[in-house]
Design goal:
single chain; 196 residues; alpha+beta; Cyclic Phosphodiesterase, Chain: A; 7-stranded antiparallel sheet; 5 helices
Length: 196
Amino acid sequence: MKFISLNNWLNEQKADDPKYGCVMMEAKIPNWEEYHTAGIEEDDVFIKPLDESYGLESQPHVTIVYGIHEDEIDEETIANVIKENLKPLTVKIEEVDIFEGKEYDVVKYNVPVTPELKKYRALFLKFPNTQNFPEYRPHMTIAYVKPGTGKKYKRKLREPFKVTFTKGVYSWHDNPADPNELKRKVINLENEVSKP
């Protein structure tokens, strides 16, 4: 496992940098756009031309491991580990926080580090990977915003809410012609639990 500093990672990303796979858990949150992303002011939203991974988050999720070496592991292997090990997970969300960066800020809900998340992360860190941040800080991204604008969204929630992550997902890059295009394997964890 290799570590680089947060500052280097945020400031030195290049188009020809290696692409990594990501294991995450997705949640279906009712009225996500109306009650969660709608609070972000339009003028604050960070957009990067030709890259749709910024702006307002359309699919709430928590990352288990980002940085899996796609060329060293088959996506079916990752999908099978998700099917065999991940279960639906419910957490309580109590605050909006931020990651500050030079290019953009990330407005996010902090997700508590549960024993299950620690176990799942340890499982996928056994695969070849590169980690950019030594500390695991699970979160659900709400939006990418222009640098310096994130702090106004930071707050404790008056009404904390529960979220259940019901899908396990592995996403990876599989199109040399479009290095930003992602493929996804999605496993419904509720279906896996109900199997005998």
